[in-house]
């Protein structure tokens, strides 16, 4: 027996765009005419890749095209992709909400999906009644729900409201209650779409912890979709990046997150500035470059990190009216440093400004710089992930060793004393 | 490494066989059916003062209206049966059928939201509708029995007979017809909404093509066959015959209705099953 619990083969899903009207009837008839003569569906041959931003010629698009992947038991697979990349379609197919156009999904065990929190909650029923209703919708028997009822209520933290109709609940309380029901389902495979966005920080932490429990301790498989890369990389070991309906990368979650960032177009690998920026544009950033004291091309740990910024008309303004912020994020979008003229005074006498970080305290890996220029207190030019650079391994500590990447992105000088 | 097909407990494919109905799965979700029935029953009359009394009031007022309009004003014969009883017997039966039909026919559109988010055997939904309507029917039926008991003891000549043993079967037939037709229509409305308009007045008109407000015995011969072609006709007539002792009872007519109901039910389930797989894309 292999321990593969989900096997997706050549999975595709075609959708028709536009409104359903008289045109659809003629297509339906044509399709039916082909079918009774034993021919292939004529509309399966056409269809374009699903890129929502370009205008296509065909009414048919492939929301997913030839997807192949496997998930092993106990894995938490993060599914990443831009809006419209096909994440939701994939989840819908996996949770049997709609059928694929071609291909197949094979699974071992019960699949429970949480595509939306509180599906089937009835406004007029109390929390107690809704736990039973929602549990049953998700596939639990009454006996199973009764056995876990107290646990569910305790996890949701809505004891006080349990006999109040759900319509009186706040949206956060609904999420709590619904997630609590779903988390106690005990399916072999749990599918979770971005549902945790509504809960407060405490509950999100609880929910993520619960999902980790489900996979690690109970050996169950979780498929998790989110736009929050920090959560994805914390929770998942493996990832899957979807792009225009096809798989871009499958593999270790860090590779996936990096690939996702580099494909979002928000980051430019060549160091050219992207055009998508905001601000009133009084002063604009023209170029940005990152290098080190020892090389024009490589930044390594321990060498001085130099971030060079060239502006178009900075000298027109007074030093006091200018504020420049640099934000450095790691590969999953977590901020590791904030450099600003607010912290260190500058004198402006040219359009070129260098920020210098002595003996680079960043661990090896990929980083992104977001730049923001304020003139007279207003945002003049704000570019998210304007530049991407990587830091190579080097010497920071006298031991010549470095902290493991998953432990820390920053390097702190310290000494140990024994008194 | 070669995987055997039977290793997989679930295989999702574009389309499956016409008769791949997965009834075992429906059975596994029977608790959900019970929940839906409970929800329908409890939720409908929340925040009303009269609550379940509304179940009684609706057929009662309809009966009184029919008695006045059709019995007193139009003077349509009731075969010698007290008009109140005559109309109520027809209405209680017809209501069950028509409610099953109209609610079931809305299954996909009404539940698009929940169907789009979570999977469970879709058949549970129409089944739960039939069962919750059965409860409603039960309540109205009790009202009818009370009225009947009053007339029997008052000595009006009405007398229930052996045919009452057929009543559970009649209810089953009405459920099957309502469910079957309803599922067919619901499957048709997912893509093209035209049927939705037909159903609203179609059911109303169909009542006049069934012996709800008139007995079959008073019909001219040339219309009789058309009315009897309606599978609900013999069911309502038999229902009336069982309790009131008046009406047309014929095994052949009833056999026709049974066959009709069976065919419609199977057809309905098969079509419904076919549509449920991809209806989310078109609804």
From TrEMBL, chain A:
Keyword field contains Transport: yes
Keywords: ATP-binding, Nucleotide-binding, Transport
Domain of life according to the entry: Bacteria
Record has Transport as a keyword: yes
Gene3D superfamilies: P-loop containing nucleotide triphosphate hydrolases (3.40.50.300)
Organism annotation: Pontibacter burrus
PROSITE patterns in the cross-refs: ABC_TRANSPORTER_1 (PS00211), ABC_TRANSPORTER_2 (PS50893)
Transmembrane segments: none
Domain ABC transporter residues, every copy: 44-269
This protein's name: ABC transporter ATP-binding protein
Molecular function GO terms recorded: ABC-type transporter activity; ATP binding; ATP hydrolysis activity
Entry GO terms, CC: membrane
Family classification: Belongs to the ABC transporter superfamily.
UniProtKB/TrEMBL annotation, chain B:
Matches recorded under PROSITE patterns: ABC_TM2
GO cellular component: ATP-binding cassette (ABC) transporter complex
Lipid bilayer topology: Multi-pass membrane protein
One Pfam family linked to the record: ABC2_membrane
Alphabetic keyword roster: Cell inner membrane, Cell membrane, Membrane, Transmembrane, Transmembrane helix, Transport
Cellular localisation: Cell inner membrane; Cell membrane
GO BP field: lipopolysaccharide transport
Gene Ontology terms for molecular function: ABC-type transporter activity
Domain ABC transmembrane type-2, residue spans: 50-275
InterPro entries named in the record: ABC2_TM, ABC2_TM_bact-type, ABC_2_transport
Residue ranges of the TM segments: 53-78, 84-102, 123-153, 165-185, 197-216, 251-272
Annotated family: Belongs to the ABC-2 integral membrane protein family.
PANTHER family cross-referenced by the UniProt entry: INNER MEMBRANE TRANSPORT PERMEASE, TRANSPORT PERMEASE PROTEIN
Name by which UniProt lists this protein: Transport permease protein
Origin species: Pontibacter burrus
